[in-house]
Amino acid sequence: MKNIFEILILLTSCAIMLFMIGKINKMRPDIASYYDLKHENLKLLNYFHGISATAMLLPAWLINPLQNFLLPFPDKINISQAIAFLVSFGAIGFFPWKRVGRDVNEFEKGSLLPPAYIGMYAFLRIAFLIIYEWFFRGLLLLTFIAWFGMGWGIVINILLYTIMHAHKSKKEMIGCIPFGFFLCVFTLWWQSVWPAIIFHLQLAIVNEWPPLQKFFQPQKQTAL
Asked: Beta-carbon neighbour count of residue 31 at 10 Å?
């Protein structure tokens, strides 16, 4: 009964996130891409990050004890783990992301925003991604591995992770499968969620910083 209760609580958190995504998409259809970072979209994303982070922390109040041993950074990292991490970090950083999406110049068409507003978005986005990986590659992954075994636990984790991106492009949904597997493998290999957190934050920075930069400079006007 305890395992069933834990799974129901975790699935409830996922359902709340999916509900928030659907609600926001109805309010602002073009929020389907994080690259559409207009003034109105940033406000909605801030609400989404705050409410979704609270939903993912829900198990921390209802499930005891939590599997928090994944949170500390590993005390010992062997050479193969270090090399794999550095190679993966470099691959994510230098991958030509622009070629698989729209040109960055097409993203932002909104007004100039104060740095403090961007700072609030960045803070909530970082906090959200840290909690997101703690939830998906920590609580969800370990709970389903304990219940269904490692193979099915990883499959279910990737499936839920992909469903969370159903509002985005087909390419991004397909990309969730190898990326989700990659994060699960690193989490289990390192016995820590921090590699997954770092890789996800890196991916967000690489993809979101170019459009965010446009908020700091006035839009260029075409000469008549």
From this structure: 21
Long-range contacts of 111-116 (CB under 8 A, 24+ apart): 111/39, 112/215, 112/216, 112/217, 112/218, 112/219, 113/39, 113/42, 113/215, 115/216
d(CA 224, CA 204): 37
Distance CA 222, CA 68 (A): 54
Q: Across 18-27, 32-41, 67-76, which has the greatest mean pLDDT?
A: 18-27
Residue 178 CA to residue 22 CA, distance in Å, equals 25
Tokens matching residue 216: 């700091």
Lowest-confidence segment of 57-71, 147-161, 177-191 by average pLDDT: 57-71
- Read off the pLDDT band of 107 (50, 70, 90): very low
Whether 67 shows a pLDDT value over 60: the answer reads: no
SS3 label, residue 169? coil
Q: What is the dihedral of CA 205, 210, 214, 220, to 10 degrees?
A: 180
The model carries a pTM of 0.82
Cis amide bond preceding 114, omega within 30: no
Where do we find the tokens 């920075």? 205
Concatenated DSSP letters of 12-35: HHHHHHHHHHHHHHHH-GGGGSTT
